[in-house]
Amino acid sequence: MGRLGKNNKRAGRAFAAALLMSTAVAGGAAVAPLPAQAQSTEASFSIAAGPLGDALARFGRQAGIQVTYVPSIASAKHTSGIVGRATPEVAIAKILAGSGLTYTFTNPRTVAISEPGAVGGGVTVDGATALQTISVTGQNPWGPVDGFVATRGSTGTKTDTPLLETPQSISVITRDRIDRQAANRLDETLRYSAGVRSDYGGAVVAADNIFIRGQFANTYLDGLRNTPFSYFGIMAAEPYGLERVEVLKGPVSVLYGQNQPGGMINMISKRPTEDARGEAQLSLGTQSHRQAAFDVSGPLDAEGAILGRFVGLGRLADGNVEYTDDDRLLLAPSVTLKPDEGTYLTVLGSYQKNNALAVTNYPWAAVNGTSPYGRMPMERFLGEPDFDRETQEQINLGYEFFHEFNADWSFKQNVRYSNFENQENYLARNSGLLFSPQTGGNTAIARNWQFRHAFGDTVGIDNQLNGKFETGAIGHDVLFGFDYAWSRATRDEKWGTGPRIENIFAPTYGSPIDFSRWNTWVDAETTTNQFGLYAQDQIEYENWRLTLGLRHDWVSAKVDDLWNGDPGIPTNPKTATALQDSDWSALTGRAGLTYVFDSGIAPYVSYSESFNPVVGEDRFGKAFEPEKSRQYEVGVKFQPEGWDGFFTVSAFDLTRVNVTTADPADITKSAQVGEVRSRGLEFEAVAELTDGLSLIGAYTYLNSEVTKATAEGSYATEGKQLIRVPGHMASLWLDYQVEAGPLEGLGVAGGVRYTGASWGDALNTFKVPSYTLFDAALSYDFGKRNPELNGLSANLNVTNLFDKSYVASCFFTLACNMGEGRTVLGTLKYKW
To answer: Which of 247, 335, 493, 533 is most exposed, with the fewest beta carbons within 10 Å of its own?
Structure first.
């Protein structure tokens, strides 16, 4: 894990961030001791006898501690190593035994190795001590990461576990990466991640449109589900309030209950910090983009026992489609109470409101180039400017409580209440291109008007008991959990026939809409309860890591029809009629085995299961069974020594059963005997190649096939590929920061994203072509050349640099999503 010869600024930043807690302890030297908790917290070590430099690197990785020293003092020295559980102090003392070197804990997460009489093991430059960092592994899996490379995470195990030892593919998008790429939506944060398609919604800014391994992805916030079950509204998350985004790929039910099988996205909120800090920023860009944001954090009392943070953002902007908005307001306060070193309570709240319209889909014939009138522009609006509008609101209030009973056992409880509301009026296309007498050609479309009001509440509670112990030479990191999720979601939707647009290639607006006649009115409420008991054991023996998990869920869902006639007529009020009242239970398992080589290479193999209840019934009135999935995955992870980097190669075989498909006897109904199989290969690399040069690269191969379906004849889908799932995706981002010379402080970055062709309908009758997009960024840190401007920086980001016109995806011939044109965003930021 060494960073020999790396710039000393990184070590300096690490020490500065830890000064609030710093004390010192040394072996063979008279220094102040570490805090009692740091001395007593044990970890499992498996460090074989051998070269001292290698042992120190492994110590840093296994203890999650940063190790600093001058490389020359460890050369030609050897150690007898250590195997078993020990405190970091005991472990480092044993590793250094007989070497003639001493150690100093400058804070509980940093140890400096030196020769007797030296100060902190540093190199003296102009009379100052500058330490060289050889191991940067002391990351908090819920906290910030310096740069793009994360090495620890919590989503894959719900514990503080190195990503290298987690037997499932995980992508972590850090705050620095989000800022550098100027991501304004959750889907934008994932553009350069393997196995993830985050742009199938194209120019739609009202929703997060994300697939993982060919399946729709559920989103979580701080480990708890982010939307009610069966919620028919939409809500696009604001990434400015997040510290990191973690993507766990494949089935996740063992830890999180009912879920889509492709994986999940866990958003980690910004939390109060022990150091006083803040930032303010202003942004201007295309689409009349005007945005202001702030983020302030730090102690609220002299003792540092109360910490606070307040994050806010306001934006006024136009959407990517004509006559639409992309306005947003976010307010996110949080407070942490720390009565002692082993206990904390963090209360997290947020309010977010979006004004952003999910526009109607477009007919394939209008955008594929076959029309003599050409292709419809990507930004074309097919609604009515005075009618179409949409708002989305979300309120969150919850807490995270943690208590450490002793060095081995701890308890955590996550609780959150959320409220969602989505209101939309819009005109939806309900036809392909029709003949228009006004133009004498196929230029018209018919439209329906729609009123939709979707709203819901959800409550989530997750209790976790975590313990560490040994049975002989085998170490255990066990987790026992009980979680509960309740949600209620209401869908009130009314449709009617609207006016046509006679020429979508040159539309005119202002047609009157007749609301007196409606065709469809749906008003239903779904109430869901989920109880789950789960257990997990992360077993460690020498270089082996075995992860075992088991869970049992109990789920109930009730659907009430709230409409029985027109509620505007007093003699025919709303009543509640049960449409479905079902109960399910399921047992899911997970197993994974990893071997961690001392070189940082870790091959793994895993098996995981998931289940996802399906609300509805077939034409015989029989309620659907839960959809179940199983996945086999093999891969290799690599965390190199000597420089920051993390690489993952994975191959998987994912099968879904009980998939609902069209019933050949009644195409208005569904039957549940379908099966879908997805096989794929993923590669992802995040690395700092040299001083100032970073790389983010990803490649995905995916084959998703319907292997079993009931529909026959013109509705047969067996043997067909899934819609919106490209066979190949690839991306590359290079980022260079000038660290010396007259251009110091300048940053230049560029990216390319390739999305392969995908099928546009379930019968695979047409393909949406592939496309390649380019992104670019410039930045300048004014403080690098002028200390008086320290903290002031500017960024310029451009996406779809060459303004390429493309179709993002289709799901049948009348429903396509257009791509997103070029956007330019400039940001001025001041940090203190």
So the answer is: 533
